[in-house]
Amino acid sequence: MDPYKSLKEEAYEANIEIPRRNLAIYTWGNVSAFDPDRAVFAIKPSGVSYENLSVETMVIVDMAGAPVDSKLKPSSDTETHRVLYRDFPGIRGITHTHSVYAVAWAQARRPVPVYGTTHADHGAEEIPCTPIMSEEAVQRNYELETGNLIVETFRSQKKDPAAMPMVLVAGHGPFAWGSTPAQSVYHAAVLEEVCKMAHLTLALKPDAEPLPPHIIRKHWERKHGKNAYYGQR
Length: 233
Hints:
single chain, alpha+beta, 8 helices, 6 strands, globular
């Protein structure tokens, strides 16, 4: 019996949500599922299309970065996932895609301001964009340094990865995370929609201003504050 079956199932189900949500085509994305008790995560195999994925094709990787039980190579982004699991306690799933609008903002090297309440419902601050990676970092280990760049961006901007579960990597694309792999895909889908809305807002009004803080705060707190009242309790 496969001791990692349930973890692989989580990863598989989350990965096939990527094309369902139109977040990537071909092989342009990956999701991982983390088990902190066993210090391993399951991740999509490198270069395998979504229609050819199965529970059995998910690759188990330990926190040293070594595959544990698969003949397939893990995603080329594995080292980025490993760094985020190491440095962002509490996350259990990570999604990386090349969704169009999020990538456009990443290529523009721009954070996404809070222009409206849809954004505020999911994050009470702008979505950060990392600096462009240095040539030295690329030469060391590109994927590992991508993770380090994300972590350093959050530290330098004093952002809480639990409150802001998404980021744009400059010139590259989006990463999102959550308490489960499924939630990380949800955050990736939210990020794409918010980026699309922000793009259209600037197309209509290039000098658009962010939403006033009191409205941002209201929309965030009605879902996430101690007196939250959105949804069923």
